[in-house]
Amino acid sequence: xxxLVESGGGLVQPGGxxxxxxxxxxxxxxxxxxxxxxxxxxxxxxxxxxISTTGNTNYEDSVKGRxxxxxxxxxxxxxxxxxxxxxxxxxxxxxxxxxxxLIGRFEYWGQGTQVTVSS
Length: 119
Known about the structure:
The protein has strands spanning 4-7, 10-12, 18-24, 31-39, 46-51, 57-59, 67-72, 77-82, 91-101, 104-109, 113-117. The protein is mainly beta. The strands form 2 sheets. Strands 2, 4, 5, 6, 9, 10 and 11 form a 7-stranded mixed beta sheet that branches. It has a 4-stranded antiparallel beta sheet with strand order 1-3-8-7, with no helix packed on it. Strand 4 (31-39) and strand 5 (46-51) form a beta hairpin. It starts with a strand and ends with a strand. The mean pLDDT is 96.
């Protein structure tokens, strides 16, 4: 069973930066959209940003201008550069891969990585 492995989370001061990465443990074919979601304590999981195979991006309003999503299609790797971090960005961040094969649609989730923004 292929899993998505995330890295790059941690503790950072307000105004600081972190770079998250997500890579599969094996081969995944047919990926279309890759995305980052987050879930803060007591809140629902929300989409932070996603990116298509052609590079079209979509950002949640509160992260526009501060976060940058990118992907390496050759390695099926996803990144999230987070700058000017705020305490309200504190959450568990999850990567998500969606796609389609002949047998139907598929979706993978990472295990989550904690991002804490605090002084």
